[in-house]
Amino acid sequence: MLKGRSLIQPADLTVSEINEILDLAEQIIVDPSSFQDVCRGKILATLFFEPSTRTRLSFEAAMLRLGGTVEGFADANVTSSTKGETLADTIRVVSSYVDVIAMRTPKEGAAFLASQYSTCPVINAGDGGHYHPTQTLTDMVTIRQLMGGLEGHTIGFCGDLKFGRTVHSLTEAMRLYKGNKFVFISPKELTVPDYMIKNILEPAGVQWTTAERLEEVIGDLDVLYMTRVQKERFFNEQDYIRLKDSYILDREKMKMAKERMIVLHPLPRVNEIAPEIDEDPRAAYFKQVKYGMYARMALMAKLTGAL
């Protein structure tokens, strides 16, 4: 049963529970009008302690499309936290008003802490460099819709893999499905954290490899998940200058890719995907945005007990 549960990290869900949410999301995609009243009378609180465009608006649109209502804030400076109120007290208060909370914070572990004090489900909408489970559900809906399933894929993650919470979350979820392989493409400074290898991939017996240049491996991939490489993450500017173009996806690199490969990106994009790629049929990142709304509709319907 998902009713009343919080979602802080992908590991909070079993494979059958993930599939249950994804199945419902796909039903909503087919016939969204059938679900327009399922959360009537329900209230979502969006507590965003750091900036967000897509995630916050996606949550709000999802609840409104389910017939519910939304309250909350997009700027922590307008809250009582500026007066010294603790997160625990904020959550105690807000959860007495609403049926579900979506919270984003720059502090790792804050969403879990909130779930310990809340009287309603808490959904982690991103906590620092830790986890972003609803982006993971978004990514999984997209892969299922465009690739026909979640098994047997070679998935390449490219860019900032050290601090990328979307990369960590999707890796943790997709390693649960048979036959998936992972390729981690990054500069040495931004490689995937050791704990992901030792605690997540190796115990599951999952195949993985690393590369420094996208050109070396793009032809092997079924899914390419792009993220930003940020100059400020480098200790040596010369290393950044040497490597930065390796992580810009352009038409020349796409010529090396499979005809059915899809390109995902959690957005916002800066310069890591050239605008010319937007017209390529393999570019799926704007479809991914819309699928995210359906994924969050399904999740909130389940957690509130509406379905």
Short summary:
This protein is α/β, with parallel strands linked by helices. 35% of the residues lie in helices and 15% in strands. The radius of gyration is 19 Å and the shape is globular.
Order of helices and strands: HEHEHEHEHEHEHEEHHEH
Provide the structure class: alpha/beta
> Radius of gyration in whole Å, from Cα?
19 Å
Assign an overall shape: globular
What is the averaged pLDDT score?
91
Please render the helix and strand layout as text.
Layout: H1 15-30, E1 43-48, H2 54-65, E2 69-73, H3 87-95, E3 100-105, H4 110-117, E4 122-127, H5 133-147, E5 154-158, H6 165-174, E6 181-185, H7 194-201, E7 207-211, E8 223-226, H8 237-243, H9 251-254, E9 262-264, H10 285-303
Parallel strand pairs: 1-2, 1-3, 3-4, 5-6, 5-8, 6-7, 8-9
Explain this structure.
With 307 residues, the protein is an alpha/beta fold. The chain is built from ten helices and nine strands. The protein has helices at 15-30, 54-65, 87-95, 110-117, 133-147, 165-174, 194-201, 237-243, 251-254, 285-303; strands at 43-48, 69-73, 100-105, 122-127, 154-158, 181-185, 207-211, 223-226, 262-264. The chain has a five-stranded parallel β-sheet with strand order 7-6-5-8-9, with helices on one face. Helix 1 (15-30) crosses helix 5 and helix 5 crosses helix 6 (165-174). The longest helix has 19 residues, at 285-303. The model has no long low-confidence stretch (mean pLDDT 91).
